[in-house]
Write a structure and sequence with these properties.
Distance between the termini: 41 Å
Largest sheet: 6 strands, mixed
Strand content: 5-15%
Bound molecules: coenzyme A
Number of helices: 10
Length: 254
């Protein structure tokens, strides 16, 4: 079965991350599929709203670490950067349902969604430093804006996870429900949006975001340069090797 399920019904296109045996971690092929689906959804008049979801037990464990080791993204048109570009510039409404761990890009992609509904088991984390990396998806700009610098430093420098209640408090999520209800709530809200005039939705979203759009694009470009370089450096190689070998990383000499 496909690792990204695409289903369109009544104006709502749902993208489901479906790789449970690897905790919904995302490979280059999955980013390609997601990026392609978003481009198609942009151009398809039958799609008015897109929903992104994982499973009740896990949203996404972030980038596939084996992929990072074997085929690290090196150019701006790498699938992960294409996905983030199409997500951040997506003109129609984006709704997310998030349950369980949302690691790395599993959290940063939510910064580009318009409505986020979380299961009470949702756990958000940005462990880029723990992996010898730096933030992506303009999270180095948007996370401090969202939660204030010092809480952002706990999330981004220490890599400390934060739970659904904290995400609600800072405004990263709109509502917390039982994990079994998150997907249905996201669908119901998406259907409400799909019944509204698309031109007004698109224009309102554009106006809300236009003040920062250029800055977000520029920040994503800077982050991608550093991220691409750091993926090949010793700290990241040690972190990925340790994950694959199921041991603690040793950064003492780095
Ligand atoms: N990349 C590749 N494989 C991953 C993965 C990832 N990001 N996350 C989990 N997996 C794999 C594990 O290697 C394991 O595979 P195996 O069964 O072949 O050994 C399987 O998924 C189950 O993972 P496991 O860690 O046993 O599940 P868990 O329920 O104990 O923990 C997480 C779930 C998400 C907390 C944990 O898997 C995790 O921390 N993953 C890494 C997250 C990460 O650092 N992502 C990168 C962000 S940039």
């Amino acid at each position: 079965m496909s690792e990204i399920l695409v289903h369109t019904e009544q104006g709502v296109q749902t993208l489901t991350i479906n790789r449970l045996d690897k905790k919904n971690s995302l490979t280059a092929a999955m980013y390609s599929t997601l990026a392609q689906a978003l481009v198609q959804a942009s151009n398809d008049a039958a799609v008015r709203v897109v929903v992104i979801q994982g499973h009740e037990s896990i949203f996404s464990a972030g980038n596939d670490i084996g992929d990072f080791l074997q085929a690290p993204p090196s150019t701006p048109d790498a699938p992960v950067f294409r996905f983030l570009g199409s997500l951040s510039s997506f003109a129609k409404p984006l709704v997310a349902a998030v349950c369980g761990p949302a690691v790395g890009i599993g959290t940063t992609m939510l910064l580009h969604c318009d409505l986020v509904y979380a299961g009470d088991n949702a756990a958000f984390s940005l462990p880029f430093v723990n992996l010898g990396l730096c933030p992506e998806a303009a999270s180095s700009l948007l996370v401090p804006q969202l939660m204030g610098y010092h809480r952002a430093a706990e999330a981004l420098l220490l890599g400390e996870p934060f739970m659904a209640e904290a995400a609600l408090e800072i405004g990263l999520v709109n509502r917390i429900v039982a994990p079994t209800e998150a997907s249905a709530l996201a669908q119901a809200q998406a259907r409400k949006l799909a019944a509204k005039p698309l031109s007004s939705l698109v224009e309102t979203k554009r106006l809300m975001k236009q003040g920062q759009a250029a800055q977000i694009t520029a920040q994503m470009g800077l982050e991608a340069q550093s991220f691409g370089r750091m993926l090949r450096e010793p700290a990241a190689r040690e972190a990925f090797g340790a994950f694959m070998e199921k041991r603690k990383p040793d950064f003492s000499k780095l």
